[in-house]
Specification:
It contains eight helices and no strands. It is mostly helical and about 180 residues long. Helix 2 packs across helix 4.
């Protein structure tokens, strides 16, 4: 399992273009091979939202801990970080050439566009799982909708889009609402 986790997170580190949220689809694709469900992945994302740090590192640490304890968490975290130790110094060395290269600029523009689609796809999968009472990603039947989760998601979306409030406060508010609903 150590080699499998090492290779998986090296792959995620080196192929995860577009930043943390864009990497979510790649992370999910890879960790689902370990048997992680969409519901468990949604839990991972909830933890990512409340723990400081980059999404890829938090995800690697979580998955490593989940499937193999502290040693696997350490292996996964180091593996996903290797790409940064390779690419950042290379980028710094060739920064002017990279920024002036029109072909590369267009490639990066395409990658950014694909990243948006990937973020949306993962968000939709998680959304379907969270609002469905039976925790199935698809299909959602009207009678199985968790209206409280759907309301919290909608409220968070509206607050962020309308008032542009710090996401930390929205997450804390959502946690408070979820806790109060549980107590009731």
């Amino acid at each position: 399992m150590t080699i499998k986790i090492l290779v998986t997170f090296l792959k995620i580190g080196f192929l995860g273009f577009g930043g943390g949220y864009a990497m979510l689809s790649l992370i999910f694709e890879e960790v689902s091979k370990f048997g992680m469900t969409v519901s468990e992945f949604a839990d991972l994302n909830a933890i990512d939202a409340i723990i400081p740090g980059p999404i890829a590192i938090n995800s690697a640490t979580y998955v490593g801990q989940y499937y193999g304890g502290f040693l696997m968490a350490l292996v996964a975290t180091l593996a996903v970080s290797v790409a940064s130790f390779v690419f950042v110094p290379l980028f710094m060395r060739f920064e002017k050439r990279i920024l002036n290269n029109k072909v590369l600029k267009n490639m990066l523009s395409g990658i950014k566009s694909a990243s948006i689609g990937l973020i949306f796809a993962v968000a939709l999968s998680i959304f379907k799982t969270v609002v469905s009472k039976n925790q199935q990603a698809i299909p959602i039947q009207f009678s199985n909708i968790d209206w409280i989760s759907l309301s919290i998601a909608g409220l968070a979306f509206i607050i962020q889009m309308r008032f542009n409030i710090n996401p930390v406060f929205i997450i804390l508010l959502a946690g408070l609402i979820g806790g109060l609903v549980y107590l009731i």
